[in-house]
Every structure is written in structure tokens, then in C-alpha cells.
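[Discussion] Sanity-checking designs against the backbone

I'm trying to build intuition for which residues belong where. Below is a C-alpha cell string of 178 positions. I'd appreciate it if someone posts a full sequence so I can compare it with mine line by line.
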């Protein structure tokens, strides 16, 4: 094999590895949809960034300011679904079944427009529920079994963030993820 052929093979292998790294290692990202028909005419982003970031333990959505909203208030909602693994233990102390259990948390706030037709939208966050909070709604198929949360299994499964203006039936901003 010639030196140029060997160099070309090494280069192709490196490019393929880089492509695989970039393509397969990226984290899932949120999808943001802005629907101008669902807002007062002239609504636009004044400052900040409209963004939500999910980690395994929660979701954080940035604060920002909209202008051109007149005297229209809005409702901001963040709904996050967390999945966990529930282990069911019998009276003998043996795990007899494991199953997935989802818990959804919802936070909501009404944001009031200020003077000059501006709307200061505060940051929204959600953190993973504790094991005790998960167990409030978890159960086992046999009432004699005891449910426990498998350590480290509570994680963000999905989320939806919306900003809906008063007087409109659909959201102006929708962010879904992870």
C-alpha cells in the first residue's frame, strides 16, 4: 500500500469517526414554535432568549421580555413528565416485579403586561420529584408488595412549555422536548 493510499484511508476513517461522533452523541434538543397569529399584532422579542434546557433532573426555561403586546396579559405553563422505575418487593424481601411509572409536574403563572406594552416573562423551572413524591402515586399490582423507587431512575421524559395570551385560545410560544 502506498503512502498516499494509507494517508487517504486514515483520513477517511477519521472523518467517518468524527461524523459518527457528531451525529450520534448530540443530546436531544427542544423544538420551539412561535405562532404570531396567537398574539397581539406587533408582538416581538425585546430582550433575552426564548429557550428551555432539559437535564436528567429537571427543566429550566429562560426569562425574556416581549414588546408590542399592548395591555394583554399571558399565562406561562411548564409541564414536565418524569419517568422512574418502581420495584415491587414481596414480604420475603425479594423484588418480584419492576415497572415504569410516570409523574407529571405542572407550574403555571400569569404574567401581567407593564407600561409601554411590554411583558417580562420570568424564568420557569422544574426539578425532579423526590422518591417520596413519586411513591405517592406509584403502586404494585399486588397490595401485599411494597413499591420502592429504583435509585437514580427518576429522569425527565418530556416537557411542554407554553405562553398563551389572554383572549387567545392557542399558545403564542410552544417549546417541547427534550
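Best answer:
Here's mine. Compare freely.
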Amino acid at each position: 500500500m502506498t503512502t498516499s493510499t494509507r494517508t487517504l484511508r486514515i483520513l477517511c476513517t477519521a472523518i467517518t469517526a468524527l461524523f459518527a461522533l457528531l451525529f450520534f452523541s448530540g443530546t436531544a434538543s427542544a423544538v420551539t414554535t412561535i405562532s404570531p397569529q396567537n398574539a397581539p399584532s406587533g408582538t416581538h422579542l425585546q430582550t433575552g432568549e426564548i429557550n428551555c434546557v432539559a437535564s436528567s433532573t429537571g427543566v429550566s426555561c429562560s426569562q425574556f421580555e416581549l414588546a408590542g403586546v399592548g395591555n394583554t396579559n399571558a399565562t406561562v405553563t411548564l409541564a414536565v413528565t418524569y419517568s422512574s422505575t418502581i420495584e415491587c418487593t414481596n414480604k420475603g424481601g425479594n423484588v418480584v416485579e419492576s415497572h415504569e411509572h410516570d409523574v407529571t409536574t405542572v407550574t403555571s403563572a400569569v404574567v401581567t403586561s407593564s407600561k409601554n406594552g411590554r411583558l417580562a416573562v420570568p424564568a420557569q423551572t422544574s426539578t425532579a420529584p423526590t422518591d417520596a413524591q413519586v411513591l405517592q402515586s406509584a403502586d404494585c399490582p399486588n397490595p401485599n408488595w411494597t413499591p420502592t423507587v429504583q435509585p437514580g431512575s427518576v429522569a425527565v421524559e418530556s416537557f411542554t412549555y407554553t405562553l398563551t395570551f389572554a383572549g387567545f385560545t392557542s399558545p403564542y410560544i410552544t417549546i417541547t422536548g427534550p
